[in-house]
Prior knowledge:
about 625 residues, alpha+beta, eight-stranded parallel sheet, 9 helices, about 15% helix, about 30% strand
Amino acid sequence: MRWLARWIVVVVLVGGGCGAEIEVEVDGVDGDQSHGADAAPAVAFDTFAAAALGTTGPLRLHPANPRYFTDDTGRAIYLTGSHTWYLIQGGGGTKTAAQFDAFLDWSQAHGHNFVRLWTGWSSISHQNLPWNRPGPGVAKDGKAKLDMKSFNQAYFDLLRDRVLRVQARGMYCSVMFFGSGIGFNTSTWASMAWNPNNNINTELARAFSVTDGKSFFTTDSAALGIERALVRKFVDTLNDVDNLLWETVNEPCHTSPGMCESTSPAVRWDKAMVDYARAYEASKPKQHPVGLTGGGGMGTTMLASNADWVSPDWSAYVEGGPATFAGKLVISDTDHLSPYYQNNVTDVPAMRKWVWKTFTRGGNPIYMDPYDSNSSVINPAYDPVRAALGDTLLLADGVDDLAAMLPSDTACSTRYCLVSAGKEYLVYQPNAGASFTLSLPAGDYAYQWFNPVTHTPLGTGSRSGGTVSFAPPISTDAVLHVWRQTAVVPPPPAVPDVIVDNGGAGTSHTGTWQISGGTLPYGSSSLWARNGATYTWRAALAKTGTYKVYLWWSQYPSRATSVPVTITYNGGAKSVAVNQQANGGKWNLLGSFPFDAAVGAAVTLAAPGAAPASYCADAVKLQYVP
């Protein structure tokens, strides 16, 4: 029944899209310069995706249940979604901002909250590389050789823009430092930027073979120093972002047979790079989880590492993985699991079930999606897998306390169940139409069925504790949600968030405010001003009580670093200063304050400074604290 209450499709306008003007100053006078921009489209997705909008602090392992991440909210965060190769770079060219937004629209339409970004690739056939190509000399592709010490800032600017676009939607992403290990195969090494024949760096020429890609996994200090500089560049570019995970390299053991034992150079290098990334980021304001991905037979060697998360490649995860926990958060990816292949439609039924098996074994499943890789048309034959990922996120969001849900292969006879003993249960029955048993402590329980083929909730009922038999009401695989009636305290009436955008009802201003060209505004645009202007948002509130107050601003280079904001609340007012050079394109918490519903709330932003500083007025959100 709690599922049914959440199963409502709504239409939401996704914020994004540049404003209609660019902030400039001409001869000391504020001015503007028109430019074109693609407007963000309206997209439809389920309420669970809408509820996920907004990230709050960087991810870290949940202290009570490290099968999941958490953030500053303390809630367990389950990650799931599709990913495809050429979002940031690729042989066919990088996707434009509009194409990237279209992918995110598509992903959210399927209810996903995670995307794996393939970055750091060194194939010189790619049009977009992290390094500059000054020469002298000519690389294998006939273009100037690369300087692996000189970074292409445009690449990292584009990467930052794309990651912020993901974050603006409340989604998460992983970022690779070194692309795919398949580039270090003997057959592909000749076309990699790291190959000494393609770059001007003598340190690499001394350390790397021109014929053997395995030499990339080096212990040579000078060559390793150049590799580590790339890690630092990624961290420096994205450290202030909340919504990301680091990944060293995709499938390092694809280089050749025999490269995946625990003492091999590739495995030692991979684990050492995890340690280096973590040590370097430790000096930064934010720390993000660092992961290792399998593939090529790396297997359980990745468990003996300092990684926070892993993508397994061993056979147990083809059937969802073990119920026991090995100490690493698992992002289980079809990319690393033979016999699943992203472009074989005959695998779709098995992969759809794999999603549910992984979810009910405490994993975070993601799908290596063909998307539009093979043609300009997105093949709907793979939609059952895509929809299953979104369905599991719906159920993860629908339980009372995901952090309390532990996988068990004994509590239910299907062996696929998440259990908060005596309180709540999610059971998956992969065998079509087959009955199963569930062990329930004494008490009264309610239940509801879910059809994973049609993606719809089904009948409800109630049972008493004991070893209880359940017969699915459908002839396919089935999902059952069970919760203890006496253990569930009805939640207080929902108090919706109150959001006041610029230009909306309740706003007023003094001075001159202009449309901003800043990126990632809330809604369609943001405003900017200088020279003593003020902007006020007034909000009517449905209930007296404590509210968290958030402010959103768009990104722009001239933003002021100390912007005064005054919150007027029940019995007082408080001024805070925000740095609008950082954290644009997201909700920023100003604090919690008591408000009287009869009076409402007021937030005023001042723009006291002169050029070149600019002050952004965009949107305010008030979130009731029960």
